[in-house]
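To: structure desk
From: M.T.
Subject: fold request, one chain
Message: Could you run this one when you get a chance? Sequence is below, nothing fancy, just the single chain.
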Amino acid sequence: MKVVVFADIHGNCEALEAVLAAISGLGPDQIICGGDLAYGGPDPEGCVTRIASLGIPCIRGNTDEWLASGAPGTGDPVVRWTRGRLSDPSQRYLAGLPFEHRVDDLAVVHATPWSISDVVPAEAGPSQLRRMLDAARAAAVVYAHIHVGWIGRTPEGWLVVNSGSVGFPFDGDPRASFALLERSSSGWTAGLHRVPYDIDRSIASFPPDHPSPAAWAARMRTGRRG
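Reply: Done. Structure tokens follow.
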């Protein structure tokens, strides 16, 4: 079985389309979106409608929750701007996203199995990995949220994977990132894929009323949070 997980699109449709094209050549059995579809980038509505049109499982990210609920983050002008760009159907779509998605003994969450916003860092140690796996009651966990793709395995062989970010990687490599997991009789294995896309065209698509296009453009170019 092949399962692709991608996440943290953040309104970057150029990166999303490049990732979807790369995925199509891999022939996965299932594709899952790990959340954070709209906040930040130039085309929040385009990204939400594109994911919704695919009919794939998608889970809720922390910024999706901000946009759908009007709760945390409402003081952020980018939250207000993004929400204003989303149609009513797109806001309802985000509001209806579930917390997790499971494929047999694989669990996909946005941040952790117990929180939509807690942080598990890259290269987390065995105790943190075991906590993720025990909380998920799974042999493998894929998460997102930190925008840094990495693969961890406990001494017992259990797997924790961060899929990285489609729209705004923070590991110094501006290429979009996603994870491919494969299950065999010996368990789950994983690899990370990086996909180049037209960053200049994406930056040029920022609408003139975006609150902070220069900061978000710098993140696209550098692959750093800034």
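Reply (cont.): The first strand starts at residue 2 and ends at 6. Let me know if you need anything else for the meeting.
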